[in-house]
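Sample entry (107 residues):
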Amino acid sequence: MNKTNKFSPEVRERAVRMVQEHWDAYPCLWAAVESIAPKIGCVPQTLLEWVKRAEVDSGQRAGLSTAERERIKELEREVKELRRTNEILRTASALFAQAEFDRKLKS
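Predicted structure, serialized as tokens:
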């Protein structure tokens, strides 16, 4: 299932920047997010996730950065493809070995 992004990266960056710049005017992060989210046109939970992701990417919060997550996904796809290729090679090798064995028995 492909997820389509309703918001461009520029809008996301602007929304996160707005939260970070105005955070101190609110009693907590959630209050800032709830105030700014309707101005952007998204739900507060979405904006909060963007803020958390930006904090991880900048090193302010622990976790895997976006680049690291993409690299892991890429490596997982590569591992999956290599396993599929190895299985095909194993099957082909077994078929060739069986054919060779059958040929020797007939001669």
